[in-house]
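Protein Entry — a single chain follows
Fields — amino acid sequence, structure tokens
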Amino acid sequence: MRKFTLKAGYRLAIGLGNPSFIENGFAFYPTYGIPYIPGSSLKGITRNLFILIVSEHLNRDAKSVEEDLMNEKFDNSKVPLYLFEDNFGEWELQETFNVLFGTKNREGKVIFFDAFPKSLTLDDIEIDIMNPHYQPYYTNPKEKPPIDCYNPVPIHYMVLKEGVEFEFVLGVANDTDPRYLELAERLLKAVLKSFGVGAKRRKGYGWFIEEANR
């Protein structure tokens, strides 16, 4: 098992599409009622980064690479997994994907646990706002043009503040080479620090930083 802590570099919006008693949803853990990042989301973004690295290395479309990986068609081919400035050597492509994420025929052996804040107060939760100006156009685009005479319609949603620390935990089956666990950690850290997790990532939300003394 491996644990590491990262700090939210900006606001974090998780689960905006979840059913909720408030205007927009938020990811609250069903048992404890506190904000969290589902392990399935962490596995998904890490898997996407792996596929992106492979597709760029092979100069192929990411969807076709994903399909071949899921159907275990890469045989014994290898790929160098460059994690930005860090070269982590060559890895057997198909077997690495099998172990980290699983395929249509087998389960992965790396476990991405749900991530929770290390500490949390009510002050760490705040209300953010989207302010669309073209709601009539969005609701009836065939009859309403996107013009500036409409009134803005504020939409409120919850976010976690910048600076909230999360603890991330990865596990692996007992019979698995521990290097796969190290690779999973490097990939997860890389995607959280460079691409982020959750909603509105193109607006700068959801990315993390690692403090130098950790």
Q: What stands out?
A: The chain has a mean pLDDT of 88.
